[in-house]
Structure formats: structure tokens, C-alpha cells
Amino acid sequence: MDSTGAGVSNLISLAEDGDYAVQLSGKDLIIHLDPASPEFKEVQIIKLKENGSKFLKFSRSKPVLPSSTHSYAGVRSPGRRVLCANESRVGIWQLDPLQRHAEIESIEPGATYVDFGGDENEIIFFHAWNTKITVFALDSGRSQIIRSPKFSSYNGFGYRPKTRQLAVLLKPDATDLLTVHEFRSYELIGRATLPTIDAQGLKWSPDGRWIAVWDAASAGTRVLVYTADGQLFRAYSGPPGLDKSLDLGVRGIEWGPVTGQRGVSELLAVGKIDGTVDVLKTTTFSCSISLSHVFQIEENPPSVWRERYADGDLEYAEASSSSAFGLPAESTGPLRGVSIMSFSANGKLLSTVDQTRPNILWIWDLESTPVLLSALVHEHAIRQAVWHPSKMQLLITTASTAYAAVRYWSPYSQPLIARIPVPRSETGRYDVRWLSFDEDDDSKFWFGTPDDYVLGHIEGVEGTPQFKALSTINGKSRASSYGPSTSR
């Protein structure tokens, strides 16, 4: 969030599928309804009652069949909504047509997190000091309370895919609890006292079969896998033969996508503080392979690409493994461990970043015998590695303060770097997100800084890469430049 004066906020938020964007400028809520359309970009403005809003969220898109009404070809998903909230007031608007749907007022001040709940008819509100969660039902006016959440972030709670039961970590006293609640009624389905020192988070598997909880690094390797109703199924404590005296513990986890005819998530990646990644098969939750970020000379070495300047522009050039992996870059983030793990849409590739060398992106092929497929070496630490939701394409951003650019990798072509036409970020904070529902050959994505976002795609993948902008959002623009407004 960027402040332009006392109580005046600038904030930009994107829908998870990239189909909508909303921008806050003081009391003006500017909604971009069709930023991907090649025709006129429809923008509507809502006048808010007060400054100081700090939460902007879109309701989630619903999974639909291609023959149904959805976001393809500019047709909007039904029932999408947007919320704008400050510490004690929440406003909700319907997007199509744009109209105010509901307002929640007189809430205890001090909200730490606000979002839509299980669907567009629910608002989940985390109160100050993590004293409680209130879930507001917009259609019935009822509210449900869950006390003592451990975290007010996505690490601390999650809705089950499809059926939307809520799993949440609680800390009512000295012990960690996992509770599972029924959708809408929030009746208690399951409750488990966790054998953890200090649980760090939970994640539902994409197929909705499992809930994984990981413990603090001081506990060593400890990942607990629970069934959808909160029953302990497996406790993973590391690969066979692990020397417990050298076990530095878990930094984070990442589920593989739903794949195959069985329609299940087959892999669970466990990122460790020591820089290794344990890949577990979900049939037994035992370690099938441990990936190491210590480069080894192999008979079939991976392709290594290094970022370099050429005629004032950045590009990738092939490099020898010895030069690429010689000296670690200075870490700008947390000191130890695997900080990024991201699966490709088909689950066959895994990209990782280890904080020992935070400037290197490692890409692993997991299809048969896991091998290091490629490594991309950059001048600055990597911020994001984001796979396309359906294609074998990867976008990368780094914490460069001098050059606003996106890096593109695919197994089918040479990696490339494209400059993005936005002002560079003084902090190196760049954000990239694919447009999820995109049937065109040109894969569109959003690229943003704290003040600006641009939607477009890369042209000339086989030649000189150029970014073609389709829509731009400037966070510092005044709302009056967008045309007529509507008071709400």
C-alpha cells in the first residue's frame, strides 16, 4: 500500500484468475471490469464513506465446464463480488451489474485479515490480537464465531476444495489445535490436539483428501497428515537413515496438483532448512526422493543459463556449471532453507529456490527418475516463480531495483527476459500473475509494482522478446481521470 497523505490509501488488487482488477485511491474505489478485453476498458467508480480501507478482495471463481458461462472470451463468471474493508467496516459489491450488495458495520476495531469465506456469501473476519474469527453470512445475516485462531493469514486456515469445509489452527492455551468445521453451519466436524512444538501452518491438498500441518524447525522434520475430518493419518519425520542430530527441520510444504485418471494429488514437497526437498508420494507419505541444492557434476548435466547485460538490456546466456554455481549471492531474505517450491500444472516439473543461493532457480524433472533439468542464475534474489495454470510455461521475477522485467522459461525454447513498461520499483517488489482463463495462443499475465500494474503478453519468443501491453493500471492516478463516478 502506498500512502499519498494522512488517511489516503492507494492499493491495487487482482482477482485470482486475473479477470478483474480493483484500485483504491483515497475514497474512490475504481473497478476495472474487463481489463483483458481488446475493446473499450470498462471502468466504474464507487465513492466510499471514509478513507483508511486496507483490504481489497474478490470472491473466488467457481470451477466450471467449458460449455458453461464463465470468464472465457470476456464473458464474466456469475456471482462475482468484491469487498473493501477497513478495521471496523466491510462493504461488498456485486460486479455484474455493479451494485452494492451488503455492508457490515459496528465491528470491533482492529481487523487483522478480511476476505471472502467459503463462497461469495460469506465474509471471514479476523479480530485484533487473534482473539477470534467471525464468519458473516450475507444471505442470512447470521454470524459464527471461532475463538483463538493461531494466525490471521492463509497459513493458519483453509477451505477444502469443492466442498469448502474450513480447517483452522487454534492456540487457546499452550497446545496447538486443529479443528474442521462444516460449510455454512460451521458445526465442528473434527478436533485434534497436535503433537507439535509450534505448528507453522496448514494446507489442504488440491484434491481435498488431506490436511498437512508442519511444525517449527526446532522440532526437526515433522509433517502431520490428517484426513478431511481431522484424524491423524501419517506423521512424517524424514527419509530413512536421517541423522536426527543434523536435522534442521522444515521451512515449508507444497502439494502437487491434481493429476492422472484417479484425480488425486500425488506428491507433497517438504522444503527443509538444510536446503533439501523431500518429495513424498501421497499413497504412503514416505520419501521417494530427496533433492539437494548442491550442484553435482553429472554425466548428463542440466542446461544452465545466466543473466547478463547486453547493449543495455538483460538476456540469458548459456553458462558452464562451474561458473554458475561457484559463489553464492548475498541473501536478502531469510537466512536458511528452501524458500520457493512450485509445481507445474501437470505435476511433472518442480521449481525451487534455496536461500543459500537465492539468485538461482532450480527446475527439476520428476516424471521418472528425478533429475535437475535446468538452472537459471540471476543478478538478484528471486521473488517469484509462477507456473502457467495449464501450459508448461514459467514466469520469474527478481528483486532488481534497476530493471523492471519478467523472465520466461519453457522446456521447448530458450529462456528469455522481457522489459516491462512500468516504472522500476525502488524496493525491487514486483508481482506477476497469469491470466487463468486464457484460450488464446498468447499467454497473458499481469506484472505489477506497488503503484502500477500492466496486463499483456510476450511477443517474439523465438527472437527478440517484446512485451505487448493490453491494459495498464496506475495506482497514483486520480479517480477523476476515469470518467463518471457512482456514489455508494
TrEMBL record:
The source's domain of life comes to Eukaryota
Tell me a GO biological process for this protein. Answer: microtubule anchoring at mitotic spindle pole body
Q: Which residues form the signal peptide?
A: none
Q: GO cellular-component terms in the record?
A: microtubule organizing center; MWP complex
This protein is called YVTN repeat-like/Quino protein amine dehydrogenase
Question: Which organism is the protein's source?
Answer: Aspergillus heteromorphus CBS 117.55
